[in-house]
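Risk register update: the risk of archive-format incompatibility is retired. Evidence:
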Amino acid sequence: MAGLIAPVARLIDEFNKLPGVGRKTAQRLTYFVLRAPADDARALAAALVAAKEEVAYCSTCCNITEIGVDPCDICADDRRDATRICVVEEPLDVLAIERTGEYRGRYHVLHGAISPIDGIGPEQIRAKQLIVRVAAGGIDEVILATNPNLEGEATAMYLADLLVPHVPIVSRIARGLPVGGDLEYADDVTLIRSLQGRRQVERG
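Archived output:
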């Protein structure tokens, strides 16, 4: 872009790659960083690097965890119900459900949802790991808490077909969530009602 020196243009381009950050927002963020004290900029850079270099995935549930902490704190907690797994799309969804205090089972994080338009199939999400985990036995219920949009519904139905032979109950969170919404933005009461009102998935 004319009039921009290379380091500034580069930072704008990098901010622009973030989800939900348009060009103008990227420019505002860039100039905020330029005006901030150098120590603040270094702290931001250090936090970004640490997030990439010190974060790993739990070998059990695929949620994020610190390097060297495997299984994650939730999977390692003996006070939680190991017979119940709540399946969500993203790590932020785990935080949203945990915030309610309603659910005390374990989780499985898919890291996405099936979306053929975007070229995302079952192989691009952590579906295989879930099936292997459930097929090993000891699970009484799998709660499908994918987002209530087209991609989330398609993912839930795909997983239900694979899970039904391996677990007594496959349920879907209730419609307390608005169609097209995301779990991470839902209020606590809505999430609690969705969990309490979950229904068994009938397939086949």
